[in-house]
TrEMBL record:
Coiled coil: none annotated. The keyword Methyltransferase does not apply. This is Malonate transporter subunit MadL. InterPro entries: Maln_transptMadL. Keywords: Membrane, Transmembrane, Transmembrane helix. The chain crosses the membrane at residues 30-48, 60-81, 93-113.
Amino acid sequence: MLLRGVALLAGCFIAGQLLGETLGRLLDIEANVGGVGFAMLFLILAQNELEKRNLFHVEMGEGILFWSKMYIPIIVAMSAIQNVRVAFTNGMLAVLAGIIPVIICLSLMPLLANKNQR
C-alpha cells in the first residue's frame, strides 16, 4: 500500500508536469507553467475521489506523506534560484501566471469546503 501511495503521487506529478509544459508551449513560453501546482491539485482530487470510494488506505497516505516531507524543502530551494526581477521586467505574463492560479484556487475553496461537509 505504501508503494501505491508513492505511485499515486508520481502519476499526479507526471500529469501535472505534462500539463504545465503544454500550457507553457501554448502560451509561447519556454518554461513549465504551474506543473507542480497542477500536480498537487491532481493529488488532492485523486485522494478525495479514492476516499469517497473507500479505496484510499492509511498505508497509501504514508507513501504520500513520505514525499510530502521532502516537498517543502525542494520547493523552497527551487524558488530561491528564480529571479523575480527578470520576471517582472519580461512582462505581465509572469505576474499573471502567478496571480491567476491563486485566484482560481481561492474561488474553489468554498466549493471544496461544502463538498467535505456532506
